[in-house]
Amino acid sequence: MRILSGIQPSGRLHIGNYFGMMEPAIRLQDEGEAFYFIANYHAMTSIHDPVALRENSRDLAVDFLACGLDPEKATFWRQADVPEVTELTWILSCVTPMGFLERCVSFKDKIAQGISSSHGLFAYPVLQAADILIFDSDIVPVGRDQKQHLELTRDVAQKFNDRYGDELLRIPEPRIREETATVPGLDGRKMSKSYNNTIDIFEETEKKLRKKIMKIVTDSTPVEAPKNPDGSYLVQLYELFASADALDEMKASYRAGGQGYGHYKQQLFEAIWSYFAPMRDKRAELIADPGYVDDVLESGAGRAREKARQVLDRVRQATGLAG
Ligand code: ADP
Ligand code: TRP
Fold first, then answer.
1. Is-catalytic flag, 207?
2. Which domain holds residue 138?
3. Count of alpha carbons within 13 Å of 80, Cβ hemisphere only?
């Protein structure tokens, strides 16, 4: 089974990225042949500063490794180090009906967020389809917001196979974990950089993390009154970090009343800070050893390129571009 996923180096990682994509990807590396990459071609749609693109890519590599991506188990590389993917993008573009792209909500969302419109932004899902299809991927772990891109990938693969030959491209399955499909942000909307409502995995200091947690929006139920844990963002976030018993305790305490939200925020803060403690240590080690990170990415790109080449050769033959 081949598992593949990518993440854009578009800024600091938050716990929505972690539970939506990274943690499932890290767990899956024990279950099959894992392929994970830093989507720097994709990030060009929104980052136009070369220094920022390079540094973000590097920070993302460090952070993903710190969180548990194991280069002994998973192939890990920067997307643009496997340029074959852009050739497949063109080939797939020629079987992708315009209507498929016009239906994509992420393009409209990104324009609404102020990202400038470009052909790259519009064609973004075709590049994503190429990322997935060029590795004969079976499973793609992502957050729910990527569901439509995965459907498009499957539809494009099917179109290609209908035109050029059955089973030329493998049809992948998304893997979206329902319990963490959308991690709420500080204001209860989906946690996202673009909403400015994130809790970062690696907040610089305890103080900064605590300050953020204190900003979580709660209602005005008085301290002594019973509170409803269902639908509370604070409880939803706590669930990601706490044991089943600790979660039950918090819910019971909500229902009993007698504690203010500040008390629960403190509990959430402690749970998050200790959850990421081993990753912070690992991250400090990686930052001190930049050569190691470079080696991981370079050897990953070599392995990824070999696989990509095989599928691309098959596609070039089937389409009449080669042979
Ligand atoms: P952002 O919305 O902050 O820009 P990205 O779109 O770069 O985040 O998301 C990168 C990965 O993290 C994707 O697989 C996406 O589905 C996942 N992800 C992002 N935010 C969340 C969230 N709030 N809950 C679950 N998964 C998320
Ligand atoms: N579009 C994805 C995101 O914004 C990143 C991505 C690019 C990706 N290529 C991919 C995810 C291939 C899974 C598979 O998060």
1. no
2. 2-183+290-319
3. 10
Tell whether 303 is covered by a domain.
yes
Q: Which residues pair with 190 in a beta bridge?
A: 184
Q: CB neighbours (10 Å) of residue 271?
A: 21
pLDDT at 155: 98
Residue at 25 is within a domain: yes
Three-state secondary-structure class, residue 173: strand
Residue 104 has pLDDT above 80, yes or no: yes
**Cα–Cα distance between 109 and 96 in angstroms, integer?**
21
Q: What is the per-residue pLDDT for 179?
A: 75
> Helix or strand or coil: residue 184?
strand
Spatial distance between the Cα atoms of 100 and 94, rounded to a whole number of angstroms: 12
CB-CB contact of 88 with 169 (8 Å): no
For the record, the structure tokens of 176 come out as 């979206």
| CA-closest residue to ligand 2 atom 3 | 7
Q: Which residues is 4 bridged to in the sheet?
A: 35
- Going by C-alpha positions, the residue among 34, 4, 75, 87 that lies closest to residue 313 is 87
110 is catalytic: yes
Integer Cα distance of 40 and 47 in angstroms: 9
Query: Which residue is closest in CA terms to ligand 2's atom 2?
Result: 7
Residues 171, 56 share a domain? yes
| CB atoms near residue 300 (< 10 Å) | 23
Confidence of residue 143 (pLDDT cuts 50, 70, 90): confident
Please name the residues in contact with 265: beta carbons below 8 A apart, sequence gap of 6 or more: 213, 214, 216, 234
193 is catalytic: yes
| Alpha-carbon span 306 to 320, nearest angstrom | 21
Residue with tokens 């042949």: 33
